[in-house]
Amino acid sequence: MRVVVMGAGGYVGSRLVPALLAAGHEVTATFTDATTAGRFWWAGQADVVEMDVRERASVRAATDGASALYYLVHGLGGVDFATSDRQGAYNAAHAAVRAGVERIIYLGGLVPDIADTDLSPHLRSRLEVEEVLTDSGVPTLALRAAMVIGSGSTSFEIMRQMSERMPVQVLPTWMDSQVEPVAVTDVITALVGALTAPLLSRAFDVGSGERMAYAALLRLYADRAGLRRVQVSVPGLPTALVSRLAPILTQAPAATVQTLVESLRHDMICGRQDFMVQLMPRRHVLTPVAEALDRALALPDETVPDSQRDVIGPLTSDVPWAGGQVSRRNGMPVHRGDGWRGLLLGPAPDPGAPAAL
Length: 357
What we know:
Elements: E1 2-6, H1 11-22, E2 26-31, E3 47-50, H2 56-63, E4 68-71, H3 81-99, E5 103-109, H4 121-134, E6 140-145, E7 148-149, H5 154-165, E8 168-172, E9 178-179, E10 182-183, H6 184-193, E11 202-206, E12 212-213, H7 214-225, E13 230-234, H8 239-245, H9 254-261, H10 275-278, H11 289-297, E14 326-329, E15 332-335, H12 339-345
Parallel strand pairs: 1-2, 1-4, 2-3, 4-5, 5-6, 6-11, 7-10, 8-13
Antiparallel strand pairs: 9-12, 14-15
Helix pairs in contact: 1-6, 2-3, 3-4, 7-11, 8-9
């Protein structure tokens, strides 16, 4: 089957393309700047095209001849990201209809059980994109996920970098809301499975089955990373204040951090788990959250090419600001012990652990 992956250079898209190729599909991978495709090991096996989702003509050209369309484009930052998202979704839907695409597969965010008007701008925009694609009349399968765990994932990297740089974690009481993380490898499996699911427009909640408070997730991360952290719950901290302060502690784009933080005040947990039946292979076992964290923190063997690495772990093609001071090697956390970072991280949890990075 010929499929087009819009957003192939993003975190999920860059890991989805090789999975589709391995499944025997012909893939058109779109990039805003096609010259950047060379950093991905699979670029020579896919049809790489340059496309600006805001330009209808280039979207039509990319979609021509495709049987399925993956829409993995999101604008997390900027003053008018919602308008750009809406325009891109309309262009993709229009192109899919003209090209006779059989199905659209979209990855969005979990939608809390609240009024649409109470959603954060980020979640409201993702839901609007889903609605635009579905209204095209092309059968649309929308996969909804909360935090995707994997090295290079924006939400994971924000958690990693903030955890490393905050020995005392001041947490607003609204962070007691629940989250259901999911490993990127399970998201990829579900996305590939959506190609053969029944042709019926509907949404699937995709998660690990493990629900926990955000504070508990931070504690679990600290445990797997070998960090000693103190959590202090503070009532009354407004979301807007936290979203302005959080970017100081991470190398992720400030607008992206602010947008994601605004979503933390809601429970981000799955409803029905029927994606396991409709999208996943029989007897598929979901990756436990603790295992996903371990694999995301794994120190890679630099002699192993990206094509042979664990997709949950770091790849050389990941964004430059991804990564941190802590990794895991031989089942133990290891970290640098130099300067102020060493003071923040503290000594290694086990003096018999492998040498520091």
